[in-house]
Design brief:
With 468 residues, the protein is of the alpha+beta class. It folds into two domains: 2-182 and 217-235 and 397-467, FAD/NAD(P)-binding domain, CATH 3.50.50; 239-392, Flavocytochrome C3, Chain A, domain 1. It is built from twelve helices and 21 strands. Strands 1, 2, 6, 7, 8, 9, 20 and 21 form an eight-stranded mixed beta sheet that branches. Strands 10, 12, 13, 14, 15 and 18 form a six-stranded mixed beta sheet that branches. It has a three-stranded antiparallel beta sheet with strand order 3-5-4. β20 (407-410) and β21 (413-420) form a beta hairpin. α2 packs across α3 and α10 crosses α11. The protein is globular, with a radius of gyration of 23 Å. Keywords: FAD, Flavoprotein, Oxidoreductase. This is FAD-dependent tricarballylate dehydrogenase TcuA.
């Protein structure tokens, strides 16, 4: 019998598998996707948010625990478990040497991501390189990996894991780590979670999935039906406004449009609906998917002129371009009169001071609702550009309630051999909102904890001396 079974194939699962092996356990990892699509949403990531008290290679200055916590507190609106959040924050300060030992390499922030140079460590080669490094290390160490192995049920006995089932196949293990993601690629469940709005629309019908098509929430639903303690709102997710031309699945990070804070956002009626300059883009980009989801038709339009070009990471698709604002309205099929009224009012309300997109500058609007509180420049220099945006779901926040040992709970009682990591428990820390790189912080921290605890459970506490 295998010691530790890890169900899932992304960052959290791989961290768990590697840590369990280092603790002395035999490990089998089951990935539902084919080998070419292994890695879940982690293959689409590019950085890890890291606490640090002084400069560290690719990380500038300092990003202390309290600042990280306040950033998280702000985006979640307090809907977070402080104990578990601080655990993940502190773990982010010590994980990178371990990651390097398993082949992960880091690089300085690229142009267009300099806001993150102090807070986030970027993976050389992105998330796909990180996933490949972990798989290579796992296989070299003797961790067994099976692809195209979607687990559809577990055998549980009084809160303890007994076996996993893949159809008629039964796989026993002494302990198990669940890290198989949420349900964002299950359109029926997404539709149920978001429901019907006051306009009679089903918003989820217009969602795109930035990440893997394999996260259908099968085990999450099974655990809910089995009496596991659940946390999180099913309608909450890491939801970004992405290019409306993106594919339904696996568009990844390149489908994001990062110029929202440098222009204005309009809905289908050519009206603004939120402050584009509320805060720095890395702290606010993940609110825009939900904001767009609340608009008619679940679509928004980012409008800029030529002045911001070169100040943001260029998206994979070029924007719609026109030499005049009326021409841009027509090209985007927006009502020209309403469009011009909105842009004229915005331009007249701009109070231009010293523009600086690296700080919360003094360029703002007056007498306009909603206001634009920073980086407000008139949109008046042709050519003009427009990007149609749809809600892009990265991962969902509904998950299994856990504690500092990453144990799954049943009726408030922690299982002694079933653990959870990654997206399946992120809702403990992320009740809502998001800030760049924190998903990888949570997955890495709890993946490593879950793997270690699973090995302890499987080996009767007799883990490798280095982990004791």
């Amino acid at each position: 019998m295998i010691d530790v079974l890890v169900i899932g194939g992304g960052n959290a699962a791989l961290c768990a598998a590697l840590m369990a092996h280092e603790a002395g356990a035999s490990v089998l990892l089951l990935e539902s996707a084919p080998r070419a699509w292994r890695g879940g949403n982690s293959q689409h990531t590019r950085n890890l948010r890291c606490m640090h008290d002084e400069p560290q290679d690719v990380l500038l200055d300092a990003y202390p625990e309290e600042e990280f916590w306040q950033d998280l507190l702000k985006v979640t609106g307090g809907n977070t478990d402080e104990k578990l959040a601080r655990l993940a924050i502190r773990a982010s300060s010590t994980c990178r040497p371990w990651m390097r030992r398993h082949g992960v390499r880091f690089q300085p922030s690229l142009a267009g991501t300099l806001h993150l140079s102090r807070t986030n460590a970027f993976f050389m080669g992105g998330g796909r390189a990180l996933v490949n490094a972990y798989y290579r290390s796992a296989e070299n160490l003797g961790v067994q990996v099976r692809y195209e192995s979607p687990v559809d049920a577990l055998e549980l006995q009084d809160g303890r894991f007994v076996a996993a089932r893949i159809g008629a196949e039964r796989i026993e293990a002494k302990a198990c780590v669940l890290a198989s993601g949420g349900f964002e690629s299950n359109p029926e469940w997404m539709r149920e979670a978001w429901g019907q709005n006051e306009r009679g629309e089903w918003p989820a019908d217009n969602f795109l999935i930035r990440g893997t098509r394999y996260n259908r929430g099968v085990l999450l639903k099974f655990m809910m039906a089995s009496g596991a303690d659940i946390i999180g709102d099913p309608s909450q997710s890491h939801c970004v406004a992405i290019d409306a031309r993106a594919p339904l699945y696996d568009g990844g990070i390149v489908t994001r449009v990062d110029c929202v804070s440098l222009g204005v956002m309009l809905n289908r009626e050519a009206k603004r609906f939120y402050d584009e300059g509320e805060d720095f883009w890395p702290k606010r980009y993940a609110i825009w998917g939900r904001l767009v989801a609340q608009q008619p038709g679940q679509i928004g339009y980012c409008i800029i002129d030529s002045k911001p070009i070169g100040r943001f990471m260029p998206p994979v698709f070029p924007g719609v371009q026109a030499q005049t604002l009326p021409g841009l309205a027509r090209a985007l099929q927006l009502d020209e009169a309403a469009f011009m009224r909105t842009l004229t009012e915005y331009n007249a309300a701009c109070r231009v001071g010293t523009f600086d997109h690296t700080v919360l500058d003094d360029c703002h609007t007056e007498g306009l609702a909603p206001a634009k509180t920073h980086w407000a420049l008139p949109i008046d220099k042709p050519p003009f550009y427009g990007y149609a945006l749809r809600p892009g779901i990265t991962f969902t926040y509904l998950g299994l309630k856990t504690d500092e040992t990453a144990a799954v709970h049943f009726g408030g009682v922690a299982s002694d051999n079933l653990f959870v990591a990654g997206e399946m428990m992120a809702g403990n820390v992320l009740g809502k909102g998001y800030t760049a790189g924190v998903g990888m912080s949570i997955g890495t921290a709890f993946g490593r904890i879950a793997g270690t605890e699973a090995a302890k459970a499987a080996l009767g506490g007799r883990v490798h001396a280095a982990l004791a």
